[in-house]
Write a structure and sequence with these properties.
Number of helices: 10
CATH architecture of the largest domain: 3-Layer(aba) Sandwich
Helix content: 40-55%
Strand content: 5-15%
CATH class of the largest domain: Alpha Beta
Distance between the termini: 47 Å
Strand order of the largest sheet: 1-2-3-4
Number of domains: 2
Length: 262
């Protein structure tokens, strides 16, 4: 096809586009998990998936089996600003009218670099706090064990991912090397090897028994939304329990829950 060619949309696509334009923004936000629901969401088609995960977790309309669920502390799939101007532009682009509240809660002076500040904002808003909300709902209906991976110097998955020039922390996908150390040529240091052995034992014990507490690992109690605990997975055998309240405070979940209307 040359640049001068043009393909007219089929009537079916025209109808779908018209239908989507007529859906209230509030409905789209509700089905995607709220204004901080992330960049993509499962498609509710009425057959395979009859309701959004958010609604299913809130109402108990899901397969109630023992569940292990968690996040990485520094998830960031949006951008990598390296200057203050880029940082401010990214926050404004991502959060719009809510940007002033976000900047007040995450002042650049507290984080040292624009990238660390932005990766923290994105991780809190799009991953950690939504996960805590989901876990709170899920735990009302079934056994749930929660974790946060806090390896601040996780090795890269490849030579180019994540960006080796940036302080990536516990980045998206870093758990792959901890659970499958042979996945790439990157090597784990002795402290990370200890975490890898711990997580492998916990995951396999959970698969076998429905409880992740394994021989030689810290006791891992059930998550509870009120006064409950989350396992902070750290290298060198330093993994420890932290409370839901502590995590919510560290990650500014009060702010994000309010902005999401949770």
């Amino acid at each position: 096809m040359t640049s001068s060619q043009h393909v007219n949309p089929t009537p079916e696509w025209t109808h779908l586009a018209s239908c989507l334009r007529g859906v209230p923004v509030s409905t789209l936000l509700a089905e995607s998990g709220g204004p901080t629901g992330g960049t993509n969401s499962p498609i509710v088609n009425g057959t395979t998936l009859t309701t959004s995960p958010r609604t299913a977790f809130a109402t108990g309309r899901f397969n109630r089996v023992p569940t292990i669920m968690g996040t990485l502390r520094d998830e960031n799939l949006i951008d990598s600003p390296t200057t203050e101007a880029q940082f401010l532009q990214d926050v404004d682009s991502q959060y719009g009218a809510q940007a002033p509240q976000v900047l007040a809660a995450y002042p650049l002076s507290d984080y040292g670099t624009p990238y660390i500040d932005f990766r923290t904002i994105v991780a809190d808003s799009d991953t950690i706090c939504p996960a805590l909300r989901a876990e709170s709902n899920i735990s009302r209906y079934t056994q749930l064990y929660s974790y946060e991976i806090d390896d601040t110097d996780a090795p890269p998955l490849t030579a180019t991912y994540p960006n080796p020039a940036l302080p990536n922390g516990a980045y998206h996908g870093a758990e792959i090397l901890l659970l499958f150390p042979g996945f790439s040529t990157a090597s784990l240091d002795p402290n990370q090897q200890a975490l890898s052995q711990q997580m492998t034992a916990e995951w396999t014990t959970f698969a076998r028994t429905g409880d992740p507490t394994a021989v030689g690992t810290p006791p891992w109690p059930l998550f509870r939304s009120q006064g409950g605990t989350v396992m902070s997975l750290q290298p060198a055998g330093d993994s420890q329990l932290t409370t839901v309240a502590q995590l919510a405070e560290v990650h500014h979940c009060g702010l994000w829950d309010a902005l999401a209307g949770a």
